[in-house]
Amino acid sequence: MSLFDKFQPIIDIQAELRQLGVMPFGAVTEKLLSSTEAIVNGHQVILAGTNNYLGLTFEPECLAAAKQAIDELGTGTTGSRMANGTFAGHVALENELAAFFDRRHAIVFSTGYAATMGMGSTLAGPGDVIVLDADSHASIYDGVRLGGADIIRFRHNDPADLDKRLRRLGDRIENTLIIVEGIYSMMGDQAPLAEIAAVKRKYGGLLLVDEAHSLGMLGDHGRGVAEAAGVEDDVDFVVGTFSKSLGAIGGYCVSNHDQLNAIRFAIRSYIFTASPSPSVIASTRAALRLMQERPQLRDRLWANAHRLYDGLKALGLQVSPEVSPVVAVTIKDRNQAIDWWNRLLQHGAYVNLVMPPASPSDDSLLRCSVSAAHSPEQIDRIVEAFATVQGQE
Amino acid sequence: MPDYNAYLANIFEILKPFAKQGILLNEESELVTELGLTSLQVMELIEQLEDHFDMSIPLNILPDIRTVHDLALALEKLNP
After folding, report:
1. Do B43 and A134 touch (CB under 8 A)?
2. Which one is the CATH code of A77-276: 3.30.450.20, 3.30.390.50, 3.30.450.40, 3.40.640.10?
3. What is the pTM of this model?
């Protein structure tokens, strides 16, 4: 028994894919033609799997802000937020995030993973309880495992099941953290947050919502599912990322709890890593401002989401349960999913191939995400690529 | 409160479909290596037990569970 034995299943899959001549994991983007088109693995494609929801990655104001920050502040901070890595831009972004979310406090992290994992691992420790949605992202699972609290899952998007689990806790509800996501990353389905908040009000505990895939998409201000559901007051912590709607990298947590400023110095993923580069902070600040100034981006995103969802559904494909900027097509057979992914690439559409255990069931997914920057014609070309591949079966 | 045998009986009941031909389901049956449960199927087993006994089973106990016996014992400890 060697340390390497446990990696054999991955090695086997890699060999299988190599034999098929397919490279779905770690596909190489050789050249970006715009925020929606690129050369990937040698094929010119429309990008339909980049989470670039608002299409801001090439926005001139974001580019200019990043370039200016590099010129004035250099390429990196070379240190932790707790030591030398807090620049004026980091503080300004925290203030701007707090203002945007209408919360008193904000923390900026180096990645979304660090934000979610850090909050999950720090808020609840040994003796505490985490009750989380079963389909939570890996960063949530990693965090809560690290923290050492008792981890209890409830059935995905099932407030009645959450109710049962909170009821069973009895007095332990006092030190319980409930974790859900706004929009779930794989299937694009929304949490029933009004009902979940009602269960929280009934029993107590604190509620953390990961709005990584819903920032800029939902609610009058684009604050996410909590705003759209009218339950922001019930949400104690919102976490999220700069790497999707805001087109950069980094993460955040916002809250009205004054303890957040003490919690920040207990979060190891905040302390023991270098802070985001000045250029990243600068482009994120510009994107956050643009997101607020241009609500029409949200409208375009949803129009594209409807167009793609309806188009794929009309082909008779098994699409995710509700319209969302994430549209997942379920392909039961893994090898068929690999084959479809490869042929979609050849026909000009890059999507994400998701296989178990990353998918929420034993099925595989061809996961698409749309952008406000897609033109209706590009969406149609994505649908046509699916139609062509389907027609070749 | 249910005892070890009650948990054991229910686990056997849920696992019946997994007892492949030629494999005798018993306390020492290994959930993953012998019965071939995937991680999703382990979670389904846990959910069915939670529903049946109206209890919540923390994920933290899973790394220590290899056999049917381990699981029944862990449930008894959770619900003494």
Report:
1. yes
2. 3.40.640.10
3. 0.95
